[in-house]
């Protein structure tokens, strides 16, 4: 493939599936916030998917912000709060074939820091603000960026 | 034109032999991009014939490598640049070698369905890294700063490292019939996920050549 061809591609060439994280940690909605916090600190992650029922598409999301602002900062015992009480639902999804531009726009619109990547109603990955920045840097390096 | 750039163009591409070598190196990297692209499609479609095409492309790459090395030893480029250019070409050839190993292991053992998605993602990112290596090479010939390009390659490499971790944890759960099948699967994953390391080494070497010509 010629460099010229590569450089002709716009930022739009950066697909979500190239930047997403495919390992998604899941907690049950009936778990305590304490258990979720344990998992997040142990795995060094900032969010977990929350499974609300056995059906595949029924997911929410719990972030470090939710835990700190809605529970810890208020002096509430995290062992006495269920994940379902503070998790956000439904999750905002994006298609794996979408451009990273669209992911950034969607994050801005919804004022969120991460999007779940969904394929036929199933969560297959996650893209974060850091992934958007990585895509932008690569786009610059490829010469795709148009100011 | 900046004096440094003029100097770089002079030592990298003005002579006939030098032009031939740079053109061949370009061809070598393009072949690698094509091989990686074919490999992604072959994995997606589980197509053994396409896998054989990757092996054929590796052979073509080997011929180009021999051509480049012999031209360099015939006197292309200033002597102090020759070892680094040869080393770069050898590193690209090692990427071809790893790709060929991956294909051979695949043809031997196949790929469990559980590992397919992540393996395709790694293969796709390997392809993107090769494309970025070509862009980096072209930028070096123009005497441009390579910092952004090298960073892009590192970002891709980090992504592959993250996927590798998941891929290995999933692989531990795949039922294995016997020792040899397990070994071949392990070797397949190992070579597939080592390709990015080798491309990163090649890009680092471009940076060394770039610094050496300043």
Structure description:
The complex is a heterodimer of chains A (147) and B (214). Chain A is an alpha/beta fold. Chain A has a single domain, classed as CBS-domain (Roll). Chain A is built from seven helices and six strands; from the N terminus they run ααβαββααβαββα. In chain A, strand 1, helix 3 and strand 2 (47-51) form a beta-alpha-beta unit. Chain B is mostly helical and 214 residues long. Chain B has a single domain (3-212), classed as Methane Monooxygenase Hydroxylase, Chain G, domain 1, CATH 1.20.58. Chain B is built from seven helices and no strands. Chain B has helices spanning 3-13, 16-45, 48-73, 82-109, 113-141, 147-172, 179-212. Classes of the chains: A alpha/beta (147), B mainly alpha (214). Chains A and B meet through helix 1, helix 2 and helix 7 of A and helix 2, helix 5 and helix 6 of B.
Keywords:
heterodimer; A: 147 residues; alpha/beta; CBS-domain; three-stranded mixed beta sheet; globular; B: 214 residues; mainly alpha; Methane Monooxygenase Hydroxylase, Chain G, domain 1
Order of helices and strands of chain A: HHEHEEHHEHEEH
The CATH architecture of chain B is: Up-down Bundle
Order of SSEs of chain B: HHHHHHH
Which structural class is indicated by helix and strand composition of chain A?
alpha/beta
Largest sheet, strands/sense/barrel of chain B: none
Radius of gyration of chain B: 19 Å
Please name the two chains that share the biggest interface, counting residues whose Cβ lies under 8 Å from a Cβ on the partner chain.
A-B, 19 and 26 residues
Spatial order of strands in the largest sheet of chain A: 1-2-3
What would CATH call the class of chain B?
Answer: Mainly Alpha
Counted beta strands of chain A: 6
Q: What is the CA-based Rg of chain A, rounded?
A: 18 Å
| Protein structure class of chain B | mainly alpha
Count of helical stretches of chain B: 7
Query: What is the name of the CATH class of chain A?
Result: Alpha Beta
Q: Could you name the ranges of chain B where pLDDT drops below 50 across 5 or more consecutive residues?
A: none
Helix content of chain B: over 70%
- N-to-C span of chain A: 25 Å
Mean pLDDT of chain A: 87
Mean pLDDT across every amino acid position of chain B:
90
């Amino acid at each position: 493939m010629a460099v010229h061809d590569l450089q002709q591609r716009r930022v739009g060439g950066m697909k979500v599936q190239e930047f997403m994280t495919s390992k998604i940690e899941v907690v049950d909605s009936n778990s305590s916030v304490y258990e979720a916090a344990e998992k997040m600190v142990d795995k060094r992650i900032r969010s977990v998917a929350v499974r609300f029922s056995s059906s595949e598409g029924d997911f929410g999301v719990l972030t470090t912000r939710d835990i700190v602002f809605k529970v810890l900062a208020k002096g509430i015992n995290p062992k006495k709060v269920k994940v379902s009480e503070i998790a956000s639902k439904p999750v905002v999804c994006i298609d794996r074939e979408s451009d990273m531009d669209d992911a950034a726009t969607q994050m801005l619109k919804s004022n969120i820091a991460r999007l779940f990547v969904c394929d036929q109603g199933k969560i297959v990955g996650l893209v974060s603000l850091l992934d958007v920045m990585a895509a932008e840097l690569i786009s610059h390096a490829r010469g795709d960026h148009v100011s | 034109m900046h004096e440094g750039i003029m100097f770089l163009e002079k030592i990298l591409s003005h002579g006939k032999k030098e032009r031939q070598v740079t053109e061949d190196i370009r061809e070598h990297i393009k072949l690698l991009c094509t091989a990686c692209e074919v490999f992604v499609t072959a994995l997606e479609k589980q197509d053994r014939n396409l896998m054989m095409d990757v092996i054929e492309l590796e052979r073509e790459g080997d011929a180009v490598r021999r051509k480049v090395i012999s031209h360099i030893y015939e006197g292309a480029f200033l002597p102090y640049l020759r070892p680094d250019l040869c080393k770069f070409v050898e590193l690209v050839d090692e990427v071809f070698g790893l790709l060929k190993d991956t294909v051979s292991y695949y043809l031997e053992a196949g790929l469990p369905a559980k590992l397919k998605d992540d393996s395709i993602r790694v293969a796709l990112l390997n392809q993107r890294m090769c494309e970025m290596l070509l862009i980096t090479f072209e930028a070096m010939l123009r005497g441009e700063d390579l910092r952004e390009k090298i960073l892009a390659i590192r970002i891709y490499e980090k992504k592959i490292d993250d996927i590798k971790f998941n891929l290995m944890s999933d692989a531990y759960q795949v039922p294995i019939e016997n020792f040899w099948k397990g070994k071949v699967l392990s070797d397949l994953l190992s070579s597939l996920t080592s390709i990015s390391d080798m491309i990163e080494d090649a890009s680092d070497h471009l940076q060394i050549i770039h610094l050496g010509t300043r």
